[in-house]
């Protein structure tokens, strides 16, 4: 213990200041409107809070000096009051979007000013304030509660007053009577009768604060009033008091503050201390509070001549506040496991030799049970001195634990249903453990917590979240190795540095969990997280571990075929151009098209070359020009060859004979999964050549691949959310939706309708979902822009509800910065209020589509989460292998194909239930075959 803390503990409290942190925050937020920090982070509440705190501390030093001070915060977690009355505070609105990221920074501000920051899970800040006030009075100290919160007025009395800093007004017993009509000792009784709409305290219907005060003054207290309720002359008031007496008693338990909670910081440790300039100045610099910094420097004559920038020094500053251990004996491993089991919560992280889990090897495991304390368990290092990578046989080395024996012990912890495992992108770690036969559960994932809160606003990697929420810049891999990850693997890192790096990951993950979990509750995103995100890591880890079998011979044959076709196309293109040129050069292609062939529509870019993007070539091809059409074919085949047939062969795992793609859970703003290493979601299926690639994805012997695909799901969701009666009716009755649309828009009978007319309606139907423009539709259909514009106008005239949906969605997004799926997922849309018209239009199109694409993504997530368990309960051996947007791929024993297809179809079509009941039915089309193309 530091000398400063020892001396502080010896000082007896004589005047205690208890600052209501939450009250300060919201007053600061609404009182100050300033530009965000240079990196875009909102800071108005942080600055307002710092100004208020600094002024309070300085004023108290000049006047009635407190001996002890602390800022008390709410934890925003569930409290004991929710057990008494589940609806308590249920109607509270979520905090403003731009305030949420400031909560953690405000707590950092309190620490920077060297003031204790106190909170306690399960209790409100008011309960802590009541408890500290009682303890201070028992020690003979005076108490000042810095707040204007009426709920705290019940504490006012002898030795306890309140200070409203905004009005510079002291609140004593007289002011309480002025507010409530009763003295502080009867405030609880009045509130029990009148209730509180802000906190959803029910009270007695029809009795307001004024009437409540009259009744309490007449009958003395709540119990006496309720026992004489039959004497009340007013009939309605009498009936309410009799019938709702229990509700009044419940309300009393809700509003009465507890004054005996287990305080996390002793009162004696709250001694007033001067701030440390070496901590406060860097914080003010980081926040960019120049004026406040100048005031502090001038007031306290701080010499900053030798001050250096503390940017990026957070890790060093926090090093003294943490304890990281390298676990090198079974006894210490047992101790850490026992500590985790006692706590019921543990943050977990793994270190491997590769970021590709299926190719890498487990090197070590990190655990953290409490903030600032973590351990690293080395299991596969080359040597403690980092002398290169050695094959690890599981036998152990002198400075690290035997792999298999350590994992046997860790398995008990990681599979313990009573211990919550927390991770950052935990799917990665779950897959690592799955390779060793360990199924990690139950889990929480800080990446997904952040994703639910702010998808589309920023990244959700640990480093970014740590700097954003904790003010800590994590150690970089290069900093512990002196090199990049591509030059050295983790098994070559010396154990002391490996411990510093790896243990910090677990420590930060636990801290992030403690910051993000309350925000999920505050912003009422629990259902989204619990039903759409929390179980996805387990589902995807199983899919990635299973992989999908790929026939390398088919890929090699396709590569040869594509090479021949590409060569043939090159000859055709050169012949049409009248000369040879580099088809892959946009500059040379532009010169051929617009200078030499004199085609219309050529526009030069800033570089001076003609634009030859796909949209330009498609427009030219639609006008009947052969050369741009052949170039498009050449580009497609070249991409198929280089991206898939040549590359996928190298992605086949030599041990499993399968490709193990990795799914990113938090990469899109709409909830859609993305596939990488390799990307299997972008294989083209509209062309014959693209579909050929799918033939290389095959079933194991004795099995079939089953494809289950949602039919027109986004169109169905459009009919649902936009409430389009005609579309709903057609989709419900199974009518050809595109033919129906063509009939409605173009006035053509369904029977005998030309295929071209139906194709145009189909293009409009799907294009509308993505906010297609007349230009885009014209290119797609090969018609003039004016004709395309007429089609779109006719479409909106026939279905005005769609235009109304689009307009209302854009308006909502401009106001809130996000749109919502049918399940409540928030998709934040950047640029919706941009001044640049093209950027704004792009964001508007994204806003229109996001609720539809996001809802479709949510629906398939719900199906993916449910299917493995349902298939297992029905004793079906199908394995879910791939997810490609609206399609799921399964590997199924041949004898179970029919039954599995029925189960999969039923689960997918009912995926929204019971949370959402759609008026438009979902339809899933199932197929099976020896390969993916046949199944689809």
Please characterize this protein's 3D structure.
The chain has 936 residues and is of the alpha/beta class. The chain has 5 domains: 13-270, 3-Layer(aba) Sandwich (Rossmann fold); 277-311, no CATH class; 317-523, Nucleotidyltransferase, domain 5 (2-Layer Sandwich), CATH 3.30.420; 551-651, Taq DNA Polymerase, Chain T, domain 4; 714-855, 5' to 3' exonuclease, C-terminal subdomain (DNA polymerase, domain 1, Orthogonal Bundle), CATH 1.10.150. Helix content is 50%, strand content 11%. The chain contains 40 helices and 22 strands. A 6-stranded mixed sheet has the order 3-2-1-4-5-6. β11, α18 (426-434) and β12 form a beta-alpha-beta unit. The longest helix is centred in the last third of the chain and has 37 residues, at 837-873. The relative contact order is 0.06.
Provide key terms for this protein.
single chain, 936 residues, alpha/beta, Rossmann fold, Nucleotidyltransferase, domain 5, 6-stranded mixed sheet, 40 helices, 50% helix, disordered N terminus
Provide a concise account of the structure shown.
This protein is of the alpha/beta class and 936 residues long. Helices cover 50% and strands 11% of the residues.
